Amino acid sequence: MNITDIKGTVQLSNGVNMPYLGLGVWRTNEGQEVIDAVKYALDAGYRHIDTATIYGNEEGVGTAIANHATDRKEVFITTKVWNADQGYDSTIKAFEASLDKLKTDYLDLYLIHWPVKGKYKETWRALETLYAEGRVKAIGVSNFLQHHLEDLMQSAKVIPMVDQLEFHPRLVQPKLLEFTRQHNIQHEAWSPLMQGQIFDIPELKELAQKYGVSVAQLVLRWDLQKGVVTIPKSIQQKRIADNAKLFGFNIEAVDMALIDGLDAATRVGPDPDNFNF
Questions:
Q1: Quick one: which of 13, 95, 261, 262 has the most CB atoms within 10 Å?
Q2: What is the pTM of this model?
Q3: Does the keyword Metal-binding apply (predicted)?
């Protein structure tokens, strides 16, 4: 990953350029709250917004983008098909509903939100259809571990271009990270700041002081230097802007290794092998 500035991108396996920094809107309320958050992000220079059907705020995201001076073509929009909508026909229908809410006629990235057993292969087939029709520029998955990817790839005509996973200093999953690299699947981090828990890790506080940055900036820069796309969530204008100030410093190799060493296989979200929703 060539790290340049807030609008920098990584090239996916199909040649599509995906901004490596985005705004996540999980648990951001529909209506003015999400509209403001997306506006703050676009004003700050972000060009990647990540939402999902289950977040219930696609309409607000679409309104914010439609009303902003930034051209739609400059904004990379990701959403995800929810578990209850999985299956071939129901995924196509869910995609149509998402397009309507987002006020757009195409998506930049469409993801399977969770690997629902017995359904994700048919869901993937629907994503392949949408991709072949040119209605989405890239397709991928979320919360797929290595065995899920291997199973899907046995029948897939198109290899997922992205896998969005819980990724932070306490959950690095180096073998999975290496697997996605080997198969040219772009790793993407959700909950990169551990829902605020990173601020309680002493080693990160010390390193942040060394580089003269915040703990959040340190960890988000670590993501990028690991080659991982990152989508921190905030609704506060200053924090959204601060989370993008990642380009005036470089974490030394010894400190990258130190952060890697904080891995404790600890999740703040559900286990992809053990979820029931």
A1: 95
A2: 0.97
A3: no
* Element at 9 (helix H, strand E): strand 9-11
Active-site residue identified among 55, 110, 120, 131: 55
Instruction: Please say if 88 is a catalytic residue.
Output: no
Is 214 in contact with 174 (CB distance < 8 Å)? no
Residues annotated as binding site?
113
Strands 162-166 and 139-142: parallel
| Burial tier of 69 (Cβ tally within 10 Å: 0-12, 13-18, 19+) | exposed
Q: Which tens digit of pLDDT belongs to each residue from 114-128?
A: 999 999 999 999 999
Q: Indicate the annotated binding residues for substrate.
A: 113
Mapping DSSP to helix (H, G, I), strand (E, B) and coil, where does residue 125 land? Answer: helix
Q: Per the CATH hierarchy, to which homologous superfamily does domain 9-194+227-245 belong?
A: NADP-dependent oxidoreductase domain (3.20.20.100)
pLDDT at 77: 98
Phi and psi at residue 128, to the nearest 5°: -65, -40
